[in-house]
Every structure is written in C-alpha cells, then in structure tokens.
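Students often ask why we bother encoding 3D structure as a string. The short answer is that it lets us treat folding as translation between two languages. Here is a chain of 325 residues written in the first language.
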Amino acid sequence: MMKLCLNKILLACVALVVAGLPMVAVAQSNIEVFGQNRIQERKFEWKFFDTRHFRVYHYDKAGRQLGRYVAEEAEFDISIIERKLGGQFPQRFNIILYNSYDEYRQSNVGLKEESPTLGNTKAGSLKIVDDKLVVYFTGAHADLRRQIRSGMATVVMQRMIFGESFKKMVKNALLLNLPQWVTEGYIAFLVDGWDEKSNSEWKGILDARPKTGFYELAEQYPELAGKAFWKFVSTQYSNNTVKSLLYSMQQKTSLNKAMKEKSNLDMKVTKAYDSCISFYKGAYRLDALHQQKPDSSSGVIALKVPKANRVLRSIKVSPGATEVS
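And here it is in the second language, the structure alphabet:
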C-alpha cells in the first residue's frame, strides 16, 4: 500500500495518480485540451484512502466521511460483482468522489474524451475514464452505493467483453456493434434486479404502445428495455445462459451470432426480441386475471361537510380503516 507523502496538496484540478507509483501531484493539463477546461468555483485539497483494490480520493471534512463509506462499500461489493459476472476486477482502481453534483460538474477529468456516455452525465449516472470512476453524493447513501456498484460492474463487464485497455474497449465495441441496451440494461439488472418500479414502468410502456417492437423500445428506453431483456433470459433460461451469452458476445462479431448459438438462445435476434415482448405481455395478462377490482358500492364513505362549498383537506383514515377524519 502506498503512503501519503504530503499531508495536504493544493490542486486547482483533480490529481491523476498512476497505481503502483508514489503519490504525485499532477496538474490536469495532461488530460485537458486548450479551451475545454471547465470553470472551477473552488479549489480541492485532495486526500485519499487506500484499500486492497481502490484508491478513493476525497476532500474536506464531509468528503472524508463519504470517502470512508465509499472505500468500505466498494471493497464489500467487489466480490459480489465478480461472482455474478464471472470476471475479475483490476488490481487497482481510482475512485474520485465529489460531495455534490454541482462540484462534480466542475471536474475536468476526461473532458477531452467526453461523449454521450462518458462525461456531461445527468444526475444519478456515472463517468468512467481510463482507470478512474468519478462519482458524487446526491444526499442519499443508497444512490452513492448504486453509482459505485454500477461503475464496478461496468468495469468488469468491459474487461470481459472488450478487453483490458480503454482504447481496446472502444475499438472492440465498434467491431461488435452492440446496441446500447445490451450493456446498460445488464448493468442495471445486475445492480437493481427486476424490481417493482422497473416492472411497473415496463408494463406501462407496453400497455401504451402495444404494437411497438422491442427494437424500437430499446432505442428509446435502452436501460429499461435492456433490463427487461436480461430478466427474460434469466427467467426463461438461466443465469448461466446469461453468462454464456455475454461470453459469446466477446467471441462473436455481432449480437445476432451470439444469440444463435445453441448453448445460448438458439434463435435469431429478431425472434429473441419478439419472444421477450410476448413473455411480458403473457405475464401481464395472467396478472390481470387474478386481480380483484374493489367494490366501489360498499367502499364509499360519506363525509359530512360543515358548511356549504367548504373544501376538506388533510383527510386521514384510521388504522382499522373504519373511520375518517
């Protein structure tokens, strides 16, 4: 484990650290392009926690507490992510933690490489640049942990499918021509599972657009559609099939070829799309048959209004649902 050489190092930008070397304070000029630097409203005094797999950068007193939380949660979750994906995490990875979204937006890390999926990200998403995962605190620890788990899962998955280096990832991603829903959906499924919120949103989309196919829905809702697809594969086949399909995607040059493998789905990608939609529509029809509609005739309670045209507010029902006030 590397030791901190200086107690405080004043940086105008994020420090870039190469794992395995003593800590070196480096200005951000080596990752910036002239004219692309963001305006920073404050200066950050960066410190870090070292764990077995991570170096977590933080600043000020509040950031120190968050940094300790991030370091502990990241180490705790790494074995779970590796086991679920069947891949290995890098021996050393940097996590850069910001105390808020506004301060995160001042980061110049990876600015010259930004794309719709790297940098300029909306609140609640994450940014991965080379060996650095950039996260921020939204006020909810659960959301911060989700950013960490999503980032770790993304790194492991990229290493499995695209290769070791970032440049190789981009090159192989273009060769594989994988749609966005494949990776985003799987990461979301791995981190969140198929929860009630996802199920309700997906059902609402299918009800509102009954004639729309999976391909079009995945173009508009890549994360949700992808999560639904991986849930379909996991339920109709197995978790091993999910891993096998991911491995085949690494070996093949297209998603279609991977799906046609007999050890995977044994069908063309278009048929897999249709099967996914049919699976959910059938499940939702079955749920509807078992749902009981409330009896409105016996469930209505009359309330006395003291004065005409008076508006009642803050109506409360008793725990036994027998009285209303």
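Translate back mentally: The longest strand covers residues 93-98. Keep this in mind for the problem set.
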